[in-house]
Amino acid sequence: MTAQEVAARLGVKLDTVYAYVSRGVLTARGQPGSRRSVFDPQEVETLARRGRPRRTSRPSALDLIVETGLTTIVDQRIRYRGRDASALARTHSFEEVADWLWTGRDDVPVLGWEPYPMALPDELESARDRMRVAVVISSAAEPLRSDLSTPAMTASARRLIASMAAAVPGASDARVARLALVGDRPPIRASIAGLLWGRLAGGRPTPGLVAALNAALVLLADHELASSTVTARVAASVRADPFSVVLAGLGSIAGPLHAGASALVHRMIEDATTADPATALATALETHRHLPGFGHRLYSDGDPRAAVLLDMIQTTAPTARGLRAARALIDAAHRHSEVRPNIDFALGALSTTAHMPATAGETIFTIARAAGWIAHAIEEYTEPPLRFRARAIPKPADNGNPDQQKD
Hints:
By secondary structure, the chain is mainly alpha-helical. It folds into three domains: 3-65; 86-258 and 359-380, Orthogonal Bundle (Citrate Synthase, domain 1), CATH 1.10.580; 261-353, CATH 1.10.230.10. The chain contains 17 helices and five strands. It has helices at 3-10, 14-22, 41-50, 85-91, 94-103, 127-141, 150-167, 192-200, 207-220, 227-237, 242-252, 261-274, 277-288, 304-316, 321-337, 343-353, 360-380, and strands at residues 28-30, 37-39, 71-74, 77-80, 83-84. A three-stranded antiparallel sheet has the order 3-4-5. It has a two-stranded antiparallel sheet with strand order 1-2. A hairpin with a 2-residue loop joins strand 3 and strand 4 (77-80). Helix 12 packs across helix 15 (321-337). The longest helix has 21 residues, at 360-380. It starts with a helix and ends in a 27-residue tail after the last helix.
């Protein structure tokens, strides 16, 4: 069966079929000489009779199915509203891709990306804290924040993301680097990537690495229904304003499992510049009980985002010390267990090659994903409110729990 036939049989949108594939609910099989996938009719019929899936086959995993027209992940490819994210990363600015996610239009002028006026407390030093406070101040500075229409949302979102980028600590006189993209387009004088380069890397900009930073923002803008995106959609379902939606998303990336892994990779790469790569891997494995920056359950053949970003870094700085160490780690990890690098590893390679702080990857991730949270909020506002309601069932008693007292 074709994807269109599956969608018709299940009574869902085509994007939902792709979501089922990415969640492991359906199996897509490639056809020789074609990019199209086909599906087993018996598997589809079984799913149709059972009803919409609520769980994956993964133990202890809850699977929430939400129909979306934004991002699909199928056949190792990520598409934003039908466009290949890997191609957009090389040819479009982050601002252009954000507007595409928000509106589905590619004729939107890249204007209005000026931060709200604000003065952050001097005692705030980390980028994470400064961005959080920037969102709160931006919310207070926007009198029309409760206007949930798409034009108002996008106008606020541009200023909000610009404010988050401007809040990143860096030299006060840091210059905004120009962004040069593939093709005959003239360099962009003012961009989020250029601003972040001045804040995170400083020094003389390397055009190829500025383009790689922009590519990272594009590739990280959305990734289907990741944990923080679900959180953002839940907030939007109760009609929280876009600033509150972003704050909800920020709360979901505070831990080390969603956005902070690139900092662990950064340190592992630094260790590999002065020690044997296998030793650096062993140290990271012993410390964290896993290899930071390797493997992804959605990509059996490797994270395509990592492939794009690492290729751009390799093209620009093939002899950079950090990149050489990163490549040595990839080779050593593959010899050990054939695992492949993911986007967190590529972010760590970018931050070490560009001499950014270890937390730079988390900063890039946060600013990029804010665009995706806004896109999902805009989409969620078109759905019935309060539609997310989980059901609870009694949990079996744990007789081994020392907190449970017996008579």
